[in-house]
Amino acid sequence: MKPAVAALCLLFLSFLRSAYSGEQKLFTSIISFGDSYADTGNLVRWEDPVLESVNLRNPPYGETFFGHPSGRATDGRIVLDFIADALGLPLVPPVLAKGQNFSTGVNFAVAGAPALNLTYLEGQNITVEIPINISLNDQLGWFEKLKPSLCSDKTPGSSDCFRESLFIMGQFGGNEYLNILVNSNMTLEQARLIHHGAKYIVVADIIPVGCMPVILATHPSPGTADYDRYGCLKSFNAGLSRHQNALLRRRVEALRERYPHAKIAFAEHYRPVVAFLHDPGRFGFNSSRTLVSCCGGGGPYNENSKALCGNPGATACADPSKAIHWDGAHLTESAYSYIAQGWLHGPYADPPILHLVN
């Protein structure tokens, strides 16, 4: 091989290696919103007497990856963590973490966050599990207050502050369902981000609520016809999750038409969870315990409101990687890793995150 040709080949291989390793980043920062499926430590840092006994502060949360509770509602990492790693970025710090540098990202998500405001929910006589102001609207308000510091190195008034940022709007609405309410306020909030200069946005749907161990344990049905082939409650999945997700998808399509300059990906929790249930062995999950929490206080679904994961009386399974569900309302790190791959490469994001930037 001629020296010139060899040099060109080496240069090309070096380019491929650097691109694959993440040295040439698609995004320079991640800005995240959401509930417990996206929270990386805000709830446990929230200073309020009502939250003193939050079980996320206790083992075995965090045992798989961090070796200690990290504020995430799982045994290890969540989807957001895997996405940050794949993009060559640090784990996204919670906004309430003191002394953090938010130049490569910031997370506003809080476990238990509803899409609708606390005042509205209470006005409807709906009992809110975590009665603090952490709704989607509140989180966007925190973002707007922090925006000047996030854009401090940009030209004042510049509209391209977030041109290389990935915005991830995690699932919202699941907490309303647990409080008997359907979310209907997403479109305005997504547009609000676009007005602040967001160009790349990921909008996530919600999981099949009827497959959550906490729902299965608290809403048992005497009729076998009420359950689908996987053992999930049909009414919760069809009447709540699929309905919400269909509405959300239509709103995302409307936003794409209204703001063609923004690149919006519709990401899914629902379909991958169904895939886990359909063929658990393919993903390394225990096929006999697909609807059983890894961590809980006993019962057919290992879900007991008197012995929640992290509290006395609850125990965790020996190998969380073989479980789909972690604590009755959340998934395991293993499940989140597969979902993240589906968001990054497809087929569980439209378009996949790695294809957002052409």
From TrEMBL:
Keywords: Glycoprotein, Hydrolase, Signal. Residues 1-21 form the signal peptide. InterPro entries: GDSL, SGNH_hydro_sf, SGNH_plant_lipase-like. One of its GO terms (molecular function) is hydrolase activity. It comes from the Eukaryota. The keyword Signal applies. Belongs to the 'GDSL' lipolytic enzyme family. This is GDSL esterase/lipase. It comes from Urochloa decumbens.
